[in-house]
């Protein structure tokens, strides 16, 4: 029966081994990696084709291939996993001459890959390989080779795919990020591929949460506080906006301003005496999480809403702390 130290030592040995393998992998990145990124990028932006990246592998490499395909697809590169065995029984028809095939095999000699290799060569489909054997059948028939360093598996028997699959996953991540940066994917574009869950919430734009149009609590600069409080109550946003005759924003009156200026003659005062001038603003194209950061990270101030500007710098809405929190942006 093993003790805790034995288990901990085992874990440390595996992680250290795989970390060293990743460092060794980083040292091998060369012009072939650049060629792979450019080939996939050119396939994506071509106006004449609708190519996709087809990723294939068998066994543990197949599981890694599925993960890489998912990561690429989520970062803007159309990618699909095709099982080599199923490809030999009809799924080959899913692959077109406009696609690129990325094939994973540590040894590069899996017999199940032969039909897919032959298909790629027959129809002049670009074939990219990830393998640790540059002299393998797969590597010899590939147009671009991403060769991993020969590093022993973390398994004490040197058999279970561990270090090799870790390197494959990391190389897939490297391709995904390089392609993402190559195409200049913005956070807003990234959200298109992640509309659900926490990630989708954090990538929501200010324009998706702001109050706008007739719901905005607007009053004129010559208004007195009795009318301002009525508007404040009716709109129920905790803020009213004060505009001059040219429709320029002069300031805002908030619930907090009422508390700070509470007096017997408050209702008779003009709003310009109470308002906060030069309120903080944010672009409607900014991420809602940016608005949340501004409102919650003010030193010595308590801000519950921001004024929203459009592309021309005109006032187009209000975003509130409450709306951000209700949307799950935190």
Q: N-to-C terminal Cα separation, in Å?
A: 46 Å
Put simply, the count of helices is 15
Strand neighbour order, sheet with most strands: 2-1-3-4-5
Could you state the CATH homologous superfamily of the largest domain? Glucose-6-phosphate isomerase like protein, domain 1
Morphology call:
elongated
The whole-angstrom Rg is 29 Å
**Strand composition percent:** 15-25%
CATH class descriptor name of the largest domain: Alpha Beta
Sheet with most strands:
5 strands, parallel
Low-confidence stretches: none
CATH topology of the largest domain: Rossmann fold
Structural class: alpha/beta
Query: How would you state the average pLDDT, rounded?
Result: 87
Number of domains: 2
Question: How many individual β-strands?
Answer: 12
Please give the share of residues in helix. Answer: 40-55%
Query: Which architecture of the largest domain per CATH?
Result: 3-Layer(aba) Sandwich
Describe the structure.
The chain has 330 residues and is an alpha/beta fold. The chain folds into two domains: 182 residues, Glucose-6-phosphate isomerase like protein, domain 1 (Rossmann fold), CATH 3.40.50; 121 residues, Roll (CBS-domain), CATH 3.10.580. The protein is 44% helix and 16% strand. Strand 3, helix 5 and strand 4 form a beta-alpha-beta unit. Helix 1 packs across helix 7, helix 2 packs across helix 7 and helix 3 packs parallel to helix 7. It starts with a helix and ends with a helix.
């Amino acid at each position: 029966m093993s003790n805790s130290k034995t288990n901990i030592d085992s874990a440390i040995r595996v992680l250290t081994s795989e970390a060293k393998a990743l460092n060794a992998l980083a040292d091998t990145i060369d012009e072939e990696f650049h060629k792979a990124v450019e080939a996939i990028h050119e396939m994506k932006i071509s106006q004449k084709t609708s190519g996709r990246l087809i990723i294939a592998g068998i066994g543990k490499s197949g599981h890694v291939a599925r993960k890489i395909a998912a990561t690429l697809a989520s970062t803007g590169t159309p990618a699909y996993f095709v099982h080599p065995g199923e490809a030999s029984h009809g799924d080959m028809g899913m692959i077109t001459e406009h696609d690129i095939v990325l094939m994973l095999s540590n040894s590069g000699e899996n017999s199940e890959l032969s039909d897919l290799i032959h298909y790629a060569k027959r129809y002049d489909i670009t074939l990219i390989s990830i393998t640790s054997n540059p002299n393998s059948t797969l590597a010899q028939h590939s147009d671009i080779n991403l060769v991993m360093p020969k590093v022993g598996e973390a398994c004490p028997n040197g058999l279970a795919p561990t270090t090799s699959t870790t390197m494959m996953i990391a190389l897939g991540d490297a391709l995904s990020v390089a392609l993402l940066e190559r195409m200049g994917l913005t956070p807003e574009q990234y959200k298109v591929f992640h509309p659900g869950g926490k990630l989708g919430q954090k990538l929501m734009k200010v324009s998706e949460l702001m109050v706008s149009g007739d719901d905005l609590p607007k009053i004129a600069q010559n208004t007195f506080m009795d009318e301002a409080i009525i508007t404040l109550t009716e709109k129920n946003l905790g803020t009213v906006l004060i505009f001059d005759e040219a429709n320029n924003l002069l300031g805002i009156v908030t619930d907090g301003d009422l508390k700070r200026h509470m007096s017997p003659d408050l209702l008779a005062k003009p709003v310009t005496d109470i308002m906060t001038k030069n309120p903080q603003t944010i672009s409607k194209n900014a991420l809602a999480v940016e608005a949340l950061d501004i409102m919650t990270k003010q030193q010595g101030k308590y801000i519950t809403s921001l004024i929203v500007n459009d592309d021309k710098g005109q006032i187009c809405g209000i975003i509130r702390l409450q709306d951000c929190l209700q949307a799950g942006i935190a």
